[in-house]
Amino acid sequence: MHEHDVELTVNGEQRRGRVEARTTLADFLRDHLGLTGTHLACEHGVCGACTVLVDGDAVRSCLLFAVQSDGAQVTTIEGIGPAPGELGPVQRAFMECHGLQCGFCTAGLVVSVTAFLDEHPSPDPSAIIDGLSGNLCRCTGYQGIVAAVRRATELRRESHAAGGAA
Amino acid sequence: MKPAPFEYHAPTTIDEVLDLLRSHGDDAKLLAGGQSLVPMLALRLTRFEHLVDVNRVAGIDGITRANGTLRIGATTRQRALERDDRVAASVPLLAVAAPHIGHFQIRNRGTVGGSLAHSDPAAELPAVAVALDAGFEVGDRVVPAMDFFTGPWTTCLGDDELLSAARFPVWDGDVRASVQEVARRHGDFALAGAVVQVALDADGRVTRAGIGLIGMASTPWHAIAAEQALIAGAPPLDVAHVAVRDTDPNDDIHASASQRRRMAIAMVERALREVTSARA
Q1: Does B2 contact chain A (CB < 8 Å)?
Q2: What is the dihedral of CA B265, B269, B275, B276, to 10 degrees?
Q3: Which residues of A touch B (CB under 8 A)?
Q4: Is the dihedral of CA B80, B84, B87, B88 positive or negative?
Q5: B18 near A CB under 8 A
Q6: What's the confidence (pLDDT) of residue A161?
Q7: Are B5 and A60 in contact (CB < 8 Å)?
Q8: What is the domain-level CATH number for residue A36?
Q9: Which side of chain B, N or C, has fewer Cβ within a 10 Å radius?
Q10: Are residues A1 and B53, on separate chains, in Cβ contact within 8 Å?
Q11: How far apart are CA B270 and CA B268, in angstroms?
Q12: Range of A48's domain?
């Protein structure tokens, strides 16, 4: 089986690699680029831990082969904040509201919630629960996560009102 | 787990796709959104020597409306059904059904053609296709939805054929749609469900109806007799009983066949009440 050259933009940086066709985007990010913030749990699209943004849309990086994402713009948890070492509103809200315990699901949740709030800036409670349904958390019982999404909507609004980038 | 090794092909024209399918036969599989195929590869439930990625094929992507038909290219993402206003305006049932497919992260990648060709009897889009008498473009043919689905995960497509688009008729008048499902969790495959679209006249009478059932047989179920009963003026519960009458649902650990029948009756009735109630 021959290997494929891939070139994609990850968190704003041009990255290249050589992969087997069966290498998923998740494994490429983790093993080839060292971006281990993207977590892998179920590896068949159920748990949502590996969620990243591809061309702006939240997708399961375990269900996409790296070779397919040649030319794509990818954002991982490492690139979701406003600058290296700084937390974005969704990350701050998860911290403030105890939206995590062990942290394994957190990267996928933060990426998913970021994409969700971009499309639904003021979600009602049932929309929040729907929006979270694609990510599994085995620690929190979800109450802290739901509170974090509500808090994130406030923080994003404040940040917009202050003229800052969300 | 990780998928077994395979050769990856990324053709850009339909002819190239068909050539690859002809030369590799059973050893090749089309890859579209990958939201059903890749999990099966990762779990090693199936393996193929060759995957033919159709995502870069020209002319099988996108939504167009012409001559009373909404044409949806096979590689159109399921998310487009929610985001493109023309879908809700032209074929409301597609827009109402879309949020029931998996989760938004799945719909961002999953394709309309992929879901149809996967032919899961518990999936939403196949049921919508039979309810609305959609037509499927396969080469020079247009296959009626009822002839396309031949069994669970089985279609009439030959080893060397490609589904390039689905055509949904655009109905006139006051057109309304409802999708009702019983599922353990949001995004799960439904244990039983109903997809309904109706057109009402000025007096609120149903003049046209499409009713499909999810998870009630080995293929998506088109409840034609129930559509006729509804147009003839039968009340929702009677229509629901007619819809479920000849179905053959599974008996398994998730639900017994009689439970599924009762669920489907309730779902059809609920959908009919929603679409025929006066608008606020």
Answers
A1: yes
A2: 140
A3: 1-2, 4, 20-22, 24, 27, 43-46, 48, 51, 57-60, 62-65, 67-68, 112, 115-116, 129-131, 133-134
A4: positive
A5: no
A6: 84
A7: no
A8: 3.10.20.30
A9: C
A10: no
A11: 5
A12: 3-79
φ, ψ (nearest 5 deg) of residue A34 = 70, 15
Q: Residue A60: list chain B partners with CB under 8 A.
A: 35, 105-106, 109
- Is residue A9 in a domain? yes
Give the residues of chain B that fall short of pLDDT 50: none
Look at residue A153 and tell me if it is in a domain.
yes
Residue spans of chain A under pLDDT 50: 166
| A141, part of any domain | yes
Class of domain B63-169: alpha beta
CATH of domain B7-53: 3.30.43.10
Contact B116, B166 (CB under 8 A): yes
The CATH number of B174-276 is 3.30.390.50
Q: Does B183 touch chain A (CB under 8 A)?
A: no
In 3-state terms chain B splits into helix, strand, coil percentages (rounded to 5) of 35, 25, 40
Task: Locate the domains of chain B by residue range.
Answer: 7-53, 63-169, 174-276
Which residues on neighbouring strands pair with residue B31, listed in sequence order? B53
Q: Which two tokens stand for residue A89?
A: 């509103």
For B8, nearest residue in chain A (alpha carbons): A21
B6 touches A: beta carbon within 8 Å? yes
Asked whether residue A22 falls in the same domain as residue A40, the answer is yes
- pLDDT tens-digit readout, B105-119: 999 999 999 999 999
| Chain A contact for B27 (CB, 8 A cutoff) | no
- Looking at A31, A47, A79, which one is the last position of a domain? A79
The per-residue pLDDT for range B32-59, each reduced to its tens digit, is: 999 999 999 999 999 999 999 999 999 9
